[in-house]
Specification:
heterodimer; A: mainly alpha; 0% strand; B: Rna Polymerase Sigma Factor, Chain: A; 2 domains; 10 helices; globular
Amino acid sequence: MILSCKEASHLVSEGLDRRLGLAERVALRLHLAICDGCSHFRKQMLFLRKAMRRLAESD
Amino acid sequence: MKDFRSRVEGERAYLLRYARLQLRDGHAAEDVVQETLLAALAGEAGFAGRSNLRTWLTGILKHKIVDALRRVAREAPLAEEEGEFDALFDQTGHWREPPSGWEDPDSLLQQKQFLAALERCLAGLPQKSARAFMMREHLGFETDDICKELGITPTHCWVLLYRARMALRECLQETWFSK
């Protein structure tokens, strides 16, 4: 399964909400290994989650 | 008793801010905070022995917010489509503008200014996505529970959460990281 960036971005997001299947995880990992844009995107999504935690705890 | 009442009142502004962020409606926020304060005063015994008043009040408030969200979902089923993100990708599904790295994001979490920018971006989210996203990331619901509360399928839920994240990313990129 070859992913486009669009599909990869969906899987990155869904990975935060459900457990991805094995095929999805492999395909995503392969894509991320060769795609800087999506790798940045993934880091940004993880950061957003952290930031929301921080906001929930703040003041 | 008088002391407890004034301490509870002292948390009103904090609770209101919290409720506004979740409900995105000033009146609804005032209502749930009022209910929370009344419930707290009536239930002072429930607080006895606990160390943190704010945490206790926030716990009550969360329940009131969930009730309010449920009411809204029942009364006003929202219109569907709220903006797609297809425009971000070309016909082959590649980024038109690939995301670039955000510099040292972790240190931003200590900056009040950044958190304020994040709140402004949250306030700009389409309502339905925002509701799912806040339940997920702010109140810490599991996805299954969000689906149940909002009466939608898991697939729909994932799409809403995706849209919220995409919109937040865009907003932060424009209003913070590109500056």
